[in-house]
Amino acid sequence: MGTPDISARPSSPPRNGAEKHPHVHTRSGGVIHDNARHTTRFTVVGNHLAQHAELSLVAIGLALHIQSLPNGAPVDIKTLAARFPEGTTRIAAGLRELEAHGYLRRTRERTESGRMVTRTVSCNRPDRASGAEAPETKPKRPNRRTDPPKHRTDNKPRPPARRPEPRPRRALPAVPQPAYPAPDLLVTALDILAGLHREDPRLYLSATDAEHLSPGVVSWLERELTPDAVRRVLTFDLPTEPIRRPAAFLAHRLGAQLPPLPPFRPPKPTAQHPLQNCDTCDRAYRAPEPGTCSGCTPTT
């Protein structure tokens, strides 16, 4: 038997996962791809979209979803908001990003029936439309000595990012209040306000604005003005410059040009016959001349 060589170095155990991915250094902490070849139900997406440096993650996800849909599938904001939990605001912003970078083209067209529809074209390579070829660039390897860290490596929970608070809406000027807001007058007032944009498109009002202005219009109707007269006063001699806040402009006009109340007119007294005593039963009744009451007058 031979004597074992005690000076030989013992063999080190194999690295974990080295037999599957011998080219990946596990100490780097980066991603390791476990890929399988797709043969059905897949979509080819370029790295110029998947690794876009200016698109948000919502926009990239929307572009991937839209490119995977068949022709004719609806991709409007309401349909996408019903499919994903991001909401209409974030989805609309993502679609605008894709449109700005050429991944979407949206145009308004009129159909044969006269209805306006939005045509959406999804572009998987925006550079092809312009004839330019996007250069292939490899991601730059970070330099730990010079580049600042881009991602947190600790496991401490990060507080959620605070969304910027929306700017408060400027309050509208007060409008005159009616003495008695009758329901029929309120309906008439809303009809007047809803039709002002037909006289001038700058006077388009939202439902909230019309609800705020309607009591002021009722105050004008209480002053014995017809709906046509109120409409003419509100649209007369409009300024030539843009009307940025039509509701505020109309509220000021309703208060500044409010007509006076009509003079009080007491009701005219109705003429009444004097009291007469019935010649038969001596009961009192009204008649122009003495005689008998209706109960004692014989019927013919």
List keywords for this structure.
two-stranded antiparallel sheet, 300 residues, mainly alpha, single chain, Arc Repressor Mutant, subunit A, 4 strands, 10 helices
Quick overview of this protein structure:
This protein is mainly α and 300 residues long. It is built from ten helices and four strands; from the N terminus they run H-H-H-H-E-E-H-H-H-H-H-H-E-E. It is elongated.
Structure, described:
This protein has 300 residues and is mainly alpha-helical. Among the domains are: 47-128, Orthogonal Bundle (Arc Repressor Mutant, subunit A); 183-256, no CATH class. It contains ten helices and four strands; from the N terminus they run ααααββααααααββ. The protein has helices at residues 47-50, 57-67, 77-83, 88-100, 126-130, 183-194, 196-199, 207-222, 227-235, 246-256; strands at 104-110, 116-122, 275-277, 284-286. It has a two-stranded antiparallel ribbon. The chain has a two-stranded antiparallel sheet with strand order 3-4. A hairpin with a 6-residue loop joins β3 and β4. α2 (57-67) packs across α4 and α6 crosses α8. The N and C termini lie far apart (158 Å).
